[in-house]
Write a structure and sequence with these properties.
Elements lengths: L1 H4 L4 E4 L19 H11 L10 E3 L1 H6 L4 E6 L14 H17 L6 H5 L4 H4 L3 E6 L2 H13 L2 E7 L4 H8 L4 E5 L3 H15 L2 E2 L10 H20 L8 E5 L4 H14 L5 E7 L4 H8 L23 H10 L2 E5 L1 H11 L14 H9 L3 H7 L6 E6 L6 H8 L7
Parallel strand pairs: 3-11, 4-5, 4-7, 5-6, 8-9, 8-11, 9-10
Antiparallel strand pairs: 1-10, 2-3
Helix pairs in contact: 2-10, 4-7, 4-10, 7-8, 10-11, 11-13, 14-15
This protein binds pyridoxal-5'-phosphate (PLP).
The site of pyridoxal-5'-phosphate has 20 residues, from helix 7 and helix 11.
């Protein structure tokens, strides 16, 4: 554990955090517990739905002198390997339902109706598209394949061949874009506009908020599962969650805010120090776009800009922002792969636990965040070995042998 104590970490108290503000008093509520209930009801009917495990990490809790650490292990979500399976595929489903209902006048269509093939002729005329670092694209492609529409996925230059192959396996057409993630987002939006495709984006921009909010509503099902799995008298005192564009962190914070109001846990948003767009946004109090390529090993967190609706939520509901180096993720992956209680965590997947491990051994930061021997900490293991080759290179062992 000692190596973590020497890693560089930046820590910022959210200057705009507002515990006094009621969830209903926001000018706009992008997510809701009733939306979570609707997504939960739908996703529970999908044939391969299973809640993912909530793992307790007692040895690490003892090492860090904390009461409890939980790790929501998304490595086997829908067989896709990440929590993202809950968002993009759910949004594709909802878009196709709207399309078919408008075309046929039917109401209350379900996944079973679409899967029956009865509406294939209609859904085949639809094309969904998105830009991705990997996992979101896999979710959208999987949703498109299941529910019967065409799918075109945009990848930037830094996305590995392994991630590309994993998306293409769901029948998506792949387009490589020169430049960084933000360049691929721009290209997907332009092409969607030009061809009349549905842009199933996980990042909101002004004028493009509806579908990203459905994607994020899908993520809240993971949070609801956690509180179904936890003993009711053992609510977390702290929640660490990683951010790329901030959609996941905002989904977590919105859920906690609406459900527990001012009594919600302390929330800590964790980012790679090479792609800390949410941190920069919080620091400047307004949306900031980072220059450069945000080249981090935590590839799925590589983004230079924050989703607008994610920031709308995080602005008042998140308490802290921290940044960690790539090395923290690698050390955490190795730590989790230890034979005593092995867990397969991917580079971006372990980031929130890496954030806890990085701050957890420094008395100054512990004190600031209120981490004590009675703290119960929830972290999100958002992906498994979604690129098995990279995993093997970093851990020196195949994920299959963990
Ligand atoms: C595994 C994993 N974890 C976390 C995130 C971060 O989610 P967001 O971009 O919504 O902040 C992503 C995004 O793709 C991801 O793939």
């Amino acid at each position: 554990m000692t190596p973590f104590a020497n890693l560089p970490v930046a820590c910022l108290r959210n200057p705009q955090a507002r515990r006094d503000l009621a969830y209903d008093d926001q000018p706009q509520q992008w997510l809701s517990l009733s939306g979570t209930a609707a997504a939960w009801a739908e996703l529970h009917q999908w044939s391969n739905y299973q809640p993912t495990p909530l793992r307790s990490l007692p040895e690490i809790a003892t090492d860090l002198d904390l009461d409890q650490i939980w790790y929501k292990d998304e490595s086997d979500r829908f067989g896709l390997g990440s929590f993202k399976a809950l968002g993009g595929a759910y949004a594709v489903f909802r878009q196709l339902v709207d399309y078919v209902q408008t075309a046929t006048g039917q109401t209350d269509l379900t996944a079973a109706d679409l899967l029956s093939g009865r509406y294939r002729e209609l859904t085949q005329a639809v094309t969904v598209t998105t830009a991705t670092d990997g996992n979101h694209g896999r979710s959208v492609a999987w949703g498109a394949q299941q529910f019967g529409c065409r799918c075109v996925i945009y990848l930037h230059a830094g996305v590995s061949a392994g991630r590309e192959a994993a998306i293409a396996a769901y029948g998506a057409e792949m387009v490589r874009v020169a430049g960084n993630y933000d360049d691929s987002v721009r290209q997907a939006a332009e092409d969607a506009q030009a061809h009349g495709w549905i842009l199933v984006s996980d990042t909101a921009h002004p004028g493009n908020t509806t579908i990203p909010s459905v994607v994020m509503q899908g993520y809240t099902v993971m949070v609801a599962e956690v509180f179904d799995q936890l003993p009711p008298d053992q609510l977390p005192t702290h929640v660490f969650v990683q951010a790329g564009v901030g959609g996941l962190a905002a989904a977590v914070c919105a859920y906690l805010w609406e459900r527990w109001g001012r009594d919600r846990p302390t929330t800590i948003v964790v980012e790679p120090d090479r792609a800390a767009c949410v941190y920069a946004t919080a620091q400047q109090g307004k949306l900031v776009t980072l220059e450069g390529d945000q080249d981090t090993l935590m590839a799925c967190l590589s983004s230079g800009h924050t989703s607008t609706i994610a920031w709308d939520i995080l602005r008042h509901s998140s308490d802290w922002f921290i940044t960690i180096p790539d090395e923290a993720a690698v050390l955490t992956m190795q730590h989790l792969a230890h034979p005593r209680s092995p867990i397969v965590g991917g580079e971006s997947g372990v980031a929130s636990l890496a954030g806890l491990l990085t701050v957890g051994q420094r008395s100054d930061l512990r004190q600031q965040l209120g981490l004590t021997t009675t703290s119960r900490v929830l972290t999100f293991g958002t992906e498994g070995a979604t690129d098995p080759e990279i995993y093997q290179k970093l851990i020196n062992r195949s994920a299959l042998h963990i």
